[in-house]
Structures are given as structure tokens and as C-alpha cells.
Amino acid sequence: MRFKIGTAAAAVMLLAAGCVSESSGTTETDNSLVGSGSGDECVIDSPVKVGQVLSITGGASFAGGYQEQGLELGFKQLNEKGGVEYEIFLEDDETTPEVGIAAYEKLIDREKVSTIIGPTLSNVAFSTFYDAQEAGVPALGISTTAEGIPEIGDYIFRNSLSELIALNASIPAAKNSLQLEKVAVMHDSTDEFTASAYTTMIEVLEDEGIDITADEKFETDDSDFRAQLTKVKDSNPDAVVLSALPAATIPLVKQARELGIDAPIVGGNAFNSPVMVGQLDEAAEGLIVGGAWSSALDSVGNEEFVTAYTEAYDRAPDQFAAQAYVAAQLIDVAVRADCDGNREAIKDNLGQILELDTILGTLSLDENGEVHQEPVVQIVENGEFKLLES
Ligand code: 1QQ
Ligand 1 pocket: which of 123, 145, 152 to mutate (most atoms <8 Å of CB)? Predict the structure, then answer.
């Protein structure tokens, strides 16, 4: 039976013995990370080291910058609460798997962190998460939405709502509100997330009985999409369903509008970005996207979060900031559950989080590391995200 937050008895017995061996790695227990009391009363002597691997530079920095701030705010508030101190080790993965792997190795072997949050992209996580699994370090993805991420292993968790769930909400909502019967699909076939999202899009479109008029692909670094867009235009779709990262999305959508494609665009998780909406300007109007968070959500603490973030960083938060902020909360809940900041305790307790009130709504993580929460569907109106009533 699952329980809300508590002790995994077997793990604690092993921890008491000073060493835990898992199939995936061996983790030494640091007794100075085992405190007294539990929950709000927990006091741990040594700081709990938290690694963060984010795309601060490179193609995914549109999200990485918000994530850095969401985490900073979250851990600052937790440190002010007292009892447990979090020490942050931030690494920039430069949006590339190679740099991400080096960052993970540094955090695991040199800094000896208790847990790692990030990386930003599934494309990077499909490399780094294997290192975490191998080393027995719990890793928490905050925006890694591709299929197959939690399945990497029992040390891998995510609070990033999968594209499967988001698209199963956004495509039916778009169908209802726009009376969609036929759509053109376009996707970046070289990125793990966009390729995975494409497969999901096709499945959901088929389930919804929506015809596909054109199915065009391109690569992450492409900048001229006119050949594919001409075929899309000729197929006369009711909407374009697009799976792409922002660097390609911005020229693609602008070129679509220049070619006279006025059809609404339904997108994947990369569209949950005010940076992208800002750069698309007029071309973003009517864009529909499914995701994990909206500033309009009536969730516990959401209003306070938006206010605190906006005051601290002089801009409104986005979904990536919100998921990052919640990651700090999840790590804290997992640490305080047994008042233990060691890797094994965090791993055991992350997988026990049931129906926690967060700014993303009520959220659970299952023992496979997958998140459970309600998706939201948003539409861009007058340059801003609004909840789409379907
Ligand atoms: C992934 C994503 C990206 C759009 C996050 C920035 O969802 O790589 O899984």
C-alpha cells in the first residue's frame, strides 16, 4: 500500500547500517545528513547539497533562465524556513548532451550532491539520467516531457507533465474550440522531445478522428521551412500541429504567416514560453498549447508565487519557473519525510509523494518516478496566455 510521506523501513534499516547497495550503484550514508525530528520539525546539521543542471545558454535557454530563478526562489524560501539548509550547485549544460554529462559527473563525483534537478531538455536527459541511475543519485526532471524518461530507472523522477498527457488535453480542446476536422503536422525529427511528441501527436489525432492533410519534417538547426510549408498550405488544413523547439518555431511560424497560412497552430511543451510568444509577436495569436501550469490556476500558493517571483525578477514567471519552484518543494518534502538528506532517503521518499498541494495543483509522484497532475490548456490572446475554455 502506498502512503503519503513516510519511512521506507527497509531502506532505513540499511541506512542505519551505514551503507546501501542498490543494483545500480553504491551510496555511502553521511550521518551528518541524518537529522532529528520530522516534517516541519526536522533539523539537519549539514547542508543538503542540491545539484542543478540547466540550459542557461544555448537553444533551450528560453526555459533555463526561468528554471534557474524558480529554483532560486524556491530554495531561498525553504532556507528561510530553517531546520534544513540547501546548498545549490548550478551547472550550465549549454543545451548539449556532452556538457550535460560532464556537469552530472562533476556534481556526482566531486561535489557529492544528494540529488540533481534538471537537465532542461529530454535530449540531454536521455544521456545524463543514465549517469544518475548508475551512480544511485536521485534526479528530478522539471521539463523533460518525452516518453521513456521515468523508465530510465528507479532513481529518475520528473515533475514535468508528459507530452502524452498534455497533448491528450490540448488536441481535443483545440478540436472542440476550433471545430478541427483536418490538420497538417510538422515536426523536428532530430530532437528527442520533438520526435517523441510527434509520435504522440499522431496517436492523439488518430484517436480524435482528425485527418492528417500533410506530414512534414525538418531538423533542429534548419532555418528555411518554405518547401515544407508550401506543401502544408496546398493541403489546406484547419490547423497546423507543430512539434519544434523555439529556435525553429520562430522562423517557421513567421514564414508560415508570410506564405499566407493563417490556420491556428497547436504546439507542444516548448510553446509554454513567453519568450517565444514575445518573439513571434502577432504570429503567435491563437496558438494553443497544453501544459502543467497557468498563472490563472486557482492552486494553493499560486498567487503568492506569481507575486514573489515578479517582485524578485522583474518579470512574470512562466511554466518552467513554476515547475522549477515546485521541484524545490518536492525535494524538501522528500528530505523532511525521514529527516534525512542522503541520496537513498530522497530517492525513497520522492516516490511516495501523494496528493501534495502545489502551485501546479494537487500533485503525486509514483514509485516509477512519473508525475500525476491535471493538465491545463492555454491559448495566446493579445500576446498573453489565457486558459482555453473548451
Ligand atoms: C523536453 C521539453 C522541452 C520543450 C523543455 C524546454 O519539453 O525536452 O522534454
Answer: 145
Q: What is the CA radius of gyration of the chain?
A: 21
C-beta of 265 in contact with ligand 1 (< 6 A) = no
Q: Tell me: the pLDDT tens digits for 311-350? A: 999 999 999 999 999 999 999 999 999 999 999 999 999 9
Residue 77: pLDDT above 70? yes
Q: CA–CA separation, 301 vs 308, rounded Å?
A: 10
Q: Is the dihedral of CA 333, 47, 95, 101 positive or negative?
A: negative
Work out whether strand 288-291 and strand 48-54 pair parallel, antiparallel, or are unpaired. unpaired
| Whole-number Å distance between alpha carbons of 367 and 353 | 9
Task: Say how many Å lie between the CA of residue 123 and the centre of ligand 1.
Answer: 8
> By three-state DSSP, how is residue 139 classified?
strand
CB 276 within 8 A of CB 59: no
SS3 assignment for 70-88:
HHHHHHHHHHHHCCCCEEE
One-letter identity of residue 261: I
Residue 67 sits at φ, ψ, to 5 deg, of -65, -45
55 within ligand 1 shell (Cβ under 6 A) = no
* Model pTM above 0.85: yes
Atom of ligand 1 nearest to the CA of 124: 8
